[in-house]
Amino acid sequence: MTDLTEIKAAARKAAFARRKKAFDSRPPGAAGRLSEVLAGYRGVPLSGYMPIRTEIDPLPAMAEASAYGPVGVPVIQGAGLPLRFSRWTPDGELKDGPFGAKVPVVDDYFDPEILIVPLVAFDASGGRLGYGGGFYDRTLEGLRAKRPTLAIGFAFDAQEAEDLPLEPTDQRLDMVVTESRILTF
């Protein structure tokens, strides 16, 4: 297997299996740990995400952060385009968006300075394997070109992997928060 696309597909498959096992057992503590990290950035505009399938759930931490400043969720604009972020509130009305993730009914876009990033796998140096669409890589590249933007991966410990098949266009995470630890890079 030398084709990077095949290598990434195999890495994703293995990571999805580890994530599902962790999701099914739902180890406690991750949302509280994410809230602790975000408490150090009160009022800074941030984006979380609406969890789909077996993704770890950031909603409790997002709800807490929304009392201090703007919180958004990603809205896919189309293939090959960066994400935009629409303001989210815990009681705001949502509709179905692309890929099964909910998005706010009313678009109220802003640029976050912190992104809580979903992922399939991460490594010990801030590498991230996503779903393969490149949405977060394009988005982080654009936001980081304008100003410092903190990318926080949110994952189960079981999602850590060695030797992720990464490319030069893959944007690194600044931090990963799991149910047991906070890794900074």
Automatic annotation (TrEMBL):
Q: What class of enzyme is it?
A: ligase
Cofactor(s) in the UniProt record: Mg(2+)
Q: Which Pfam families match?
A: 5-FTHF_cyc-lig
PANTHER family for this protein: 5-FORMYLTETRAHYDROFOLATE CYCLO-LIGASE, ATPASE INHIBITOR/5-FORMYLTETRAHYDROFOLATE CYCLO-LIGASE
Write the lineage as a comma-separated list. Answer: Bacteria, Pseudomonadati, Pseudomonadota, Alphaproteobacteria, Rhodobacterales
Which keywords does this Swiss-Prot/TrEMBL entry list?
ATP-binding, Ligase, Magnesium, Metal-binding, Nucleotide-binding
Q: What is this protein called?
A: 5-formyltetrahydrofolate cyclo-ligase
> What is the reaction catalyzed?
(6S)-5-formyl-5,6,7,8-tetrahydrofolate + ATP = (6R)-5,10-methenyltetrahydrofolate + ADP + phosphate
